[in-house]
Amino acid sequence: MSCNSSWRIARRRLCIALAAWPLAGRASVGEERPMDGLRRWGSGEFRRLGFLVYEATLWAGGDDPLRPPLALELLYRRALRGKSLADASVREMRRLGFADDANLAAWGEQLVGIFPDVRAGDRIVGLHRLRGAQFFHNDRPIGAVDDVAFASAFFAIWLDERTSAPELRAALLKLPAA
Questions:
Q1: SS3 string of the chain?
Q2: Which end of the chain is more exposed for a tag (fewer CB within 10 A), N or C?
Q3: 25 pLDDT exceeds 80?
Q4: Burial class for 99, CB neighbours closer than 10 Å (0-12, 13-18, 19+)
């Protein structure tokens, strides 16, 4: 094979690769995104000691944003360890009184295994399904807890009337104007 012929083959392969490149990052057919089929509701900020920790957005499947299916999207503005996220979640579920210590301990272990360390700009989405919860980090599935009681307790952290962040709850439950 001549050098000229090899060059043409290499150039053709490069052109094909460059033409296909924009399609490489797209989801495959049938792959679901956490918010598919859900309608955007409200959004707000969560601050601790004056520092912005994350921005939250609620997505719901019907006219009642408190009933599954729903998704809570958290866009982190600070770096946090996954274990800290899990521990804070368990603390809030305990404060709300949704489970006994045995369940909270088991759920805490599951969350430590699911939640990654996050950096500013990372996003975690929790999807409340009828049979439990599924979690995504930057649009990639990272784990699930198939327990209805867990899902109810976890999403109550933000959506229960007794939440520790009532202003954020009010912002999340506000349906934006059409």
A1: CCHHHHHHHHHHHHHHHHHHHHHHCCCCCCCCCCCCCCEEEEEEEEEECCEEEEEEEEEECCCCCCCCCEEEEEEECCCECHHHHHHHHHHHHHHHCCCCHHHHHHHHHHHHHHCCCECCCCEEEEEEECCEEEEEECCEEEEEECCHHHHHHHHHHHHCCCCCCHHHHHHHCCCCCC
A2: C
A3: no
A4: buried
Average pLDDT over residues 22-42: 65
pLDDT at 18: 40
What is the spatial order of strands in the sheet that 123-129 belongs to? Answer: 39-48, 51-60, 70-76, 123-129, 132-137, 140-145
Token pair for residue 87?
């521990």
21, pLDDT greater than 50: no
Q: Which two tokens stand for residue 45?
A: 């900020």
The overall average pLDDT reported for the chain is 86
Cα(132)–Cα(150) distance, integer angstroms: 7
- Give the separation between CA 149 and CA 151, rounded to whole angstroms: 6
State how far the alpha carbon of 90 is from the alpha carbons of 48, 82, 83, in Å: 17, 13, 11
pTM: 0.80
Domains, the chain, with CATH or none: 39-172 (3.50.70.10)
